[in-house]
Amino acid sequence: MDKSNNIYVAKLGKAVGLKGDLRLFIDSDFPEQFKKGATFLTNRNLELKVLEYNSSRELIKFENYEDVETAKKLTNQELYSTIEQTKENCKLGKNEFFWFDLISCEVFENDLRLGKVKELHRYPLNDYFEIETDIELVTKGYPKIFLIPHIFDKYILNVDIDKKIINVTNSFEILENS
């Protein structure tokens, strides 16, 4: 598995009970990917295969780690999935996109290029695009970076993943006031 291509999806907590169950702290909008038979890579380069996942108790168990002693060795490890696995296992709804597809998209308001998506941030009320402002706007004195709330219709008009373009509205105003 090419590590640069991987997406952080969860962290393993303490072993619970005697049969190898571990607490699972999911950092993903797709808990359904933790199904039996799914494989994940850890930050220590171990490949783990899910034996069972109990979503109500937030417990996970992996093949070959079926007792408390072996399971303890996995505590605090991070789980990663590949982009391919993610696309296969996680189904998107309308106006839903994978973060990795949104990064580096060009952002336009009408025909003005505002910049490109550098990062996404999750805040309690909304997710935000961190925009690296277009160099032409920076030379006119605008900030190098600004945030656009990820709210459809109010700020985000449409997203074209294939063309890597996001059309926005009311966002130049945010840049002006940043």
From TrEMBL:
Q: Which GO terms describe its molecular function?
A: ribosome binding
The Ribosome maturation factor RimM PRC barrel domain sits at: 99-169
* InterPro entries the UniProt entry points to: PRC_barrel-like_sf, PRC_RimM, RimM, RimM_N, RimM_N_sf, Transl_B-barrel_sf
Keywords, A to Z, come to: Chaperone, Cytoplasm, Ribosome biogenesis, rRNA processing
Superkingdom, taxonomy of origin? Bacteria
Give all residue intervals belonging to the RimM N-terminal domain.
9-83
Name any GO cellular component annotation: ribosome
Q: Which GO terms describe its biological process?
A: ribosomal small subunit biogenesis; rRNA processing
Subcellular localization is given as:
Cytoplasm
What function does this protein fulfil? An accessory protein needed during the final step in the assembly of 30S ribosomal subunit, possibly for assembly of the head region. Essential for efficient processing of 16S rRNA. May be needed both before and after RbfA during the maturation of 16S rRNA. It has affinity for free ribosomal 30S subunits but not for 70S ribosomes.
- HAMAP family (UniProt xref): Ribosome_mat_RimM
Q: What is known of its domains?
A: The PRC barrel domain binds ribosomal protein uS19.
The record's note on quaternary structure and interaction partners says: Binds ribosomal protein uS19.
Protein family per UniProt: Belongs to the RimM family.
Protein known as: Ribosome maturation factor RimM
Which organism does this sequence originate in? Arcobacter aquimarinus
Gene, per the UniProt record: rimM
